[in-house]
Amino acid sequence: MVCIITGDIVGSRKIKDSWLLSLKTALKVVSGQNSKWEIYRGDSFQVEVEPENAIRTTAYLKACIRINKPADVRMGIGIGEVKSKRKKLSESSGDAFVNSGVAFDSLKQAKVNLAIKTESSSFDEEINVLIKLSLIAMDSWGIVAAEMVKLALENENILQSELAILSGRTQSLVSEALKRAHYSELMEMDKLYRKKLNQMLFK
């Protein structure tokens, strides 16, 4: 089982392309050692990550793009098997790719920026409700909130006082930004998603 995230930058033609460097750097970070990511058609991308990291990865990618306000990102998460692995992600095939495409294509109609598709409709229904609720917070991230979420996800085991030093901001400002971003609720959702995913995969 793998997770394929398909995405594009919202309104990329109307904004400065400072988002492109942010996107490339973020894709390198989330794909880790496997380096399985690709940018195509100028503002579209695909990346392969571990299924359990789907929520955390999409939150990280969104934070990296939202720093370049007013840029935003739409993403479809697909989880499934991979039939043929090619050097280029866009030439590979399998359920993970199909599901990612279906999730991505559903975004405009559902008027949301993030959705998930797996082989389990009950799992999808449940997680997509959680995602819609999380988007109430994520879609309104300002630059500082996005910066703090990015930093917190990159350094998840450090204290807020250490985050403050890293960011060059006061601890109260860091705390307020993460609160405004609903970071702790997002991490609770990530934990629940991982639990539900495990239950689904090992039924």
From TrEMBL:
Highest taxon above the source species: Bacteria
Protein name (Swiss-Prot/TrEMBL): Transcriptional regulator
Organism: Pedobacter mendelii
